[in-house]
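Usage

Read records sequentially. Each one opens with the input sequence:
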Amino acid sequence: MESVAPYLLVCLLLLLVFAGVEIAVCLGIVSFLAMYSATQDIGISLSFLNSTAYEALRQYLFAVVPLFILMGQFIAQSGAAADLYWGIDRWLHRIPGRFAYATVLGNVVFAFVTGTSLASATTFTAIAYPQMKEAGYNRHFSLGLVSGSACLGMLIPPSLLMVVWGILTDLSIGHLFIAGVVPGFMLAALMMAYIFAITLIRPDLVGHGSGRRQPELDDAGPHVARGIASARPEPTSLDMTISLTGLLAIMVGALGGIWVGFFTPTEGAGIGALISLVVAIAKGMRWPAIYETVLLAARTAIPLMIIVFAAQLYSRTLAMSGIGLTLQGTITGSGLPEWGIVLFMIVIWLVLGTLIDSISIMLLTVPIFGPVALSLGIDPLVFAIVGILTIEAGLLTPPFGLIVYAVRSVIPTENVSMKAIFAGSTPFCVILLVTIAIILTVPETVTFLTRLI
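and closes with the structure output:
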């Protein structure tokens, strides 16, 4: 019976997750049952639960998550992200399909101050989609582009998935941040290469050859773009200066300090949150809006903190009860070659990505898959980036791709189906898979920068 117990507990965990029970509750129930199964003593099991809660939540590192969320919320709510989009658009104003390029580049920069793909998806649906719609872009292509480029938010630091991955595996969060830089820019370059191909093969998708012209700068001056003024007024030069200066200060000061080891991740997150608050105040945000932004960040962070505590409990349970070793032994002893085991894990991530959110996927799988990858000789940083990319790819696939649903929720009045958005995001999902293949083939794309520091 003892040899069957690990598999029964895994089945119970999956059953609870797919029944709609909150992931933290699922992990808590299964962890307690696993510990009780191993000790046969309810007192020891309760003591283990109490000690894990105390040790997990008192860690200084746990302040990173709410501070990064607060930083991203201030930047998004203050309008700095919209200013960023306008600035990139002005820079690219002579390039065909410039709104598409601006969306990808805007997501690259916004990713440095937000850390979550869902925030990127909702922000750029509100900012970029109206511009592309006015310019005659194909709606399915536009919404698929916003969905796909939002995935950059979880790869380019500071990424909340990287923070959670680091907590689960005891990897350095600073090293994870550095490891995501080159793959993040590589992914953005592949997306822009796809956009370039589309402008040549299907110019109608980007507003050319469809009977409508992309708006051009008015001859009277650079302040009004014909055809898009109704979507959003252009920011003033002062707004642009404040926003771009603040974003650069966060990237160079806060995140740069983490990368070179001058700040801990928690200190860097705190400095970034402070800089974003200064930017928000400089752009006109006052106490009522600041208060609401802090509450919004708290509503996002508190459930995450509970989930991360449950993840700590789950990881410790797998280690202490021996269930983790049993499951890992089953995978490595399956007879599959190394590439087959890696492919198996990737398929599991893709399937789970169609059904549940990214953090839940990590909590369920990383404590088991991480040691398996280590036993295969895969660099932990390479495996982390591959895992994050795969999980994000799953969030673009039907039937429950959460990024696509986030995009659709911002435009409830649009007559566009979920199926159409999924179709538009499919090429970007393929680009994510191509990036994974490149990283597994050339792992130096992940480890190069970490070796220099």
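Summary fields computed downstream for this record:
- Residues 210-231 have pLDDT under 50 and may be disordered.
- The chain has one domain: 5-452.
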